[in-house]
Write a structure and sequence with these properties.
The complex is a heterodimer of chains A (484) and B (312).
Chain A (H helix, E strand, L loop, with lengths): L1 E7 L4 H9 L3 E9 L3 E10 L4 E10 L4 E3 L6 H14 L2 E3 L47 E6 L11 E7 L2 E8 L7 H5 L4 H8 L7 H16 L5 H29 L3 H22 L21 H19 L2 H7 L7 H7 L3 H6 L6 H4 L16 H23 L16 E8 L2 E10 L2 E8 L1 H13 L7 H8 L4 H4 L1
Helix pairs in contact in A: 4-5, 5-6, 6-7, 6-13, 6-15, 7-8, 8-13, 13-15, 14-15
Chain B lengths: L1 H31 L9 H10 L10 H20 L15 H21 L3 H29 L7 H10 L7 H17 L18 H5 L4 H26 L10 H27 L9 H22 L1
Classes of the chains: A alpha+beta (484), B mainly alpha (312).
């Protein structure tokens, strides 16, 4: 692993970031309040070989302004908006510096991540309407859906502008489940921070726990033994295969073929119960901790092999059905160019043909096969999950039978800061931790959903309204992980 | 007098039977998927429960208030006209197949008006989809029923069925099979079953029938659900007797009538189970593919008429 940190002046930022973006991906932008000045860390990742570059810019706390990178990178523009909400740092030259998470009832000058900001601001009237872009024309009408839905799903509002049945534009309004997690993490011990990390998004407890653990280990120089690493690798793949199988069932279930979903739920439940035996928690919480963490039960090769067989059966049942095949093919296409420009990650990116996987670029263990699909439609996103689930099951079975698992060396970083990069089932999660006297001074979380949400709206153009649930399931993004 | 009694009993059987068939189909699907499922009587209990509640209404005005009644009344009236017990009871000219089809259409139209009257996006969306599909399904239904009428040369349902019972050989023809297939497709579409509509979804954006009924509550909801169940019972019963008319009473003897009605109920139950089992391994068609399915039903029905007329 190669790590570089460079402190640069604000005026050099655009040139240096532009040069880096030719070879690297902007993983996150993290701001820190250091009292009379603010530090903004731009984290760039590339690999293999694993290369991590941080550009730090120091700003005057009284008038924090940075040049915007929005023209260079779409995700940069979104990170800058989140930073503007949290710290009041103005991205100069941003084309649309609207609030993201900044609640309508908060005073405009309330920035929850600044030092001294009260935990509860004085709430004001939410006088401004949410700026949905109106779509006009003959026969165009709007369908508002949510934030309260008929199923047991997270809250999000979707505003469809539709002509006939064809979606012209869909604007999601999220941020209904903001918990102030990053602020809650400040002042925590490692143990306290891990409890929060496991709750970033309930279905990604392992992903976020491991990313936070890696960040803490890098910041403190703590090392985990080979058995702890075995547990980490196994749980990460177990979480991936469990969620992928449940997603496969949910996607096919949305075409109305509920028998496949019923069978996927049975398979998923078997894996969840197995996970509960391994960790003591159905969501796989409580095992992954800095410096250690052991499984409570052995891995079961026969279970993984049997699940792989059953998975093949139910996928065959679905894809051989011509109606299901017709519903999936060509629905909600996300082109490779759009996916690349939007900075999409995870299986969604790979289904659109992007060869992007942090298990390869920032590897914790070798042997990940990078697989992609071409079509970028719902079918490709389903197929991508199927091949990844099979890969994970095969690896789990090999590990259960005693294959050696690597324990990567974590070299402590300078300055009490650490970075954790983990490819979870939904995509890459990036945690950055900065410690001060053993306590967390700043914790920043980037869930893959934050990067992928804008792509859903793009994929929906020219999709018909009744196919929206199918398209949405094929992305399956987290609201909680996005809102934090 | 017997005719009136039989008509009333038919309405009762269609209402109860429709609710039980709805529950049965859900049960069959659940068991085939490895779930326990709700009891078969669940729709009946739901309707009974909702009947005792007041009806909150999304908008003022008469449309929402009268739609549930219209839906139940038109379906009940249609249920009196279809000979589910026997063929020799009523003056044959009254029980015209066209009247039955138009009564059912009136119910659909009322539901669509109700959907629009809620002034919500879902109601309007459902109404628009339902009317688009109705415009394709109703002609197919008319032509399919007309195909059954060819051998008898009459659109009166008792006359059609009486003729078929008199000369069973007329049913051993490609025309009869084609017409039965066309009617099956239309019945599946008209009752909102897969692959046209998914009665068990909670996804508002994909709904057709359910989207129009989201805003009803209490007694209104009970009537709308009852109307949908009666429609299912009646259409399945009609499909059963038109395809396989044996067992219908040809006299007014009470026992024969009772036997005929029981046999009709049995035919509808068999059809319901078959459709539910087929649904398990089916999925919902992409909305824009549904017209192709209904067009196919129309072509089958038209072919049935051509073949029937040529063979006569």
């Amino acid at each position: 692993m190669r790590r570089r940190v460079a402190e640069i002046g604000a005026s050099e930022l655009v040139a240096q970031a532009g040069a880096l973006l030719a070879t690297h991906r902007l993983a996150t932008i993290v701001a820190h309040d250091e009292g009379d000045r603010l530090r903004v860390a731009y984290v760039f990742l590339a690999g293999p070989p694993d290369d991590r570059v941080e550009l730090h810019v120091l700003l005057d706390a009284r008038r924090p302004v940075v040049p915007s990178l929005a023209a260079l990178s779409f995700p940069a523009g979104r990170f800058e908006r989140a930073m503007r909400d949290g710290f009041g740092i103005e991205p100069e030259g941003h084309p649309a510096p609207r609030p993201l998470a900044h609640h309508g009832h908060w005073p405009a000058d309330y920035h929850p991540l600044r030092r001294g900001a009260p935990a509860r601001p004085e709430l004001a009237d939410d006088a401004a309407a949410y700026p949905f872009t109106p779509v006009e024309g003959a026969g165009v009408y709007e369908i508002p859906v949510g934030p309260v839905h008929a199923g047991l799903i997270e809250p999000g509002h979707f505003r469809f502008s539709v002509v006939g049945e064809t979606i012209l534009k869909m604007t999601p309004r999220l941020w209904f489940v903001q918990r102030g997690l990053e602020r809650l993490g400040e002042g925590c011990t490692s143990e306290g921070l891990l409890a929060l990390a496991e709750r970033v998004s309930g279905d990604s407890a392992v992903t976020h726990a491991l990313a936070a653990t890696l960040a803490l280990e890098e910041a403190t120089g703590q090392q985990a033994g080979p058995d702890a690493w075995r547990a980490r690798h196994a749980l990460l793949e177990l979480e991936r295969v469990t969620r992928h199988i449940l997603d496969i069932g949910a996607i096919v279930g949305d075409t109305g073929m509920s028998v496949v979903q019923a069978r996927a739920l049975v398979l998923g439940e078997r894996l969840v119960r197995h996970g509960a035996q391994l960790t003591g928690h159905r969501l796989l919480r409580g095992v992954i901790r800095p410096g250690g963490g052991l499984l409570r039960a052995p891995l079961e090769a026969t279970l993984y092999r049997e699940v792989a067989e059953r998975l093949d059966e139910l996928v065959g049942l679905a894809t051989r059905n011509t109606i299901v095949a017709d519903r999936l093919a060509g629905t909600a296409i996300l082109g490779a160019d759009d996916a690349r420009r939007l900075g999409v990650v995870g299986p969604v990116a790979r289904a659109s043909g992007l060869a992007d996987d942090a298990r390869v670029s920032q590897p914790l263990v070798g042997g990940t096969v990078l697989r992609t699909q071409d079509a970028g439609d719902v079918r490709a996103r389903l197929d991508q999950r199927v091949v990844e689930a099979h890969d994970s099951l095969a690896r789990l079975a090999r590990w259960a039978e005693g294959e050696d698992v690597a324990s990567p060396e974590v070299a402590p970083a300078a300055g009490g800061a650490g970075l954790g990069v983990v490819e979870g089932w939904r995509g890459v999660a990036v945690h950055r931790v900065r410690l001060d006297a053993g306590r967390v001074a700043r914790w920043s979380v980037t869930d893959p959903s934050f990067l992928n949400w804008p792509a859903l709206a793009v994929a929906l153009r020219h999709t018909i309204v009744p196919d929206f649930p199918l398209a949405n399931k094929s992305f399956n993004l987290s609201y909680a992980g996005n809102d934090l | 007098m017997t005719a009136v009694a039989v008509a009333l009993v038919q309405v009762l059987v269609v209402a109860l039977g429709g609710l039980l068939l709805t529950g049965l189909m859900a049960k069959v699907r659940a068991r085939a998927e490895g779930r326990v499922g709700a009891p078969v009587t669940q729709p009946l209990r739901d309707v009974a429960k909702w009947l005792g509640r007041e009806s909150p209404r999304a908008t003022a005005g008469t449309a929402l208030a009268i739609v549930p009644t219209v839906v139940v009344a038109t379906t009940a009236l249609a249920a009196t006209l279809v000979p589910l017990a026997g063929v020799g009871l009523v003056d044959a000219t009254g029980a015209d197949a066209l009247v039955v089809v138009f009564l059912l259409l009136t119910g659909s139209l009322a539901l669509a008006v109700g959907g629009l009257a809620t002034a919500t996006a879902f109601g309007g969306m459902g109404a628009s989809r339902a009317m688009t599909l109705s415009a394709l399904a109703e002609p197919a239904l008319l032509v399919a029923v007309a195909a059954f009428a060819v051998p008898a040369g009459s659109l009166s349902l008792p006359a059609m069925l009486g003729h078929a019972l008199d000369q069973p050989l007329t049913m051993v023809s490609p025309s009869h099979v084609l017409a039965a297939l066309a009617l099956l497709v239309v019945v599946v579409a008209e009752t909102g079953r897969m692959p046209v509509d998914n009665p068990s979804t909670h996804l508002e954006l994909t709904m057709i029938h359910e989207a129009m009924t989201l805003e009803y509550g209490g007694r209104d909801q009970a009537l709308v659900s009852l109307g949908a169940a009666m429609r299912l019972g009646l259409l399945l019963g009609m499909l059963g007797v038109l395809t396989v008319p044996w067992g219908l009473a040809t006299s007014a003897a009470p026992l024969a009538l009772l036997g005929g009605l029981a046999l009709s109920a049995l035919k509808a139950t068999v059809l319901a189970v078959v459709i539910a089992l087929a649904e398990v391994h089916s999925a919902k068609l992409r909305l824009f593919r549904v017209p192709e399915l209904l067009a196919a039903a129309f072509v089958l029905a038209a072919l049935a008429i051509v073949v029937g007329v040529v063979a006569r």
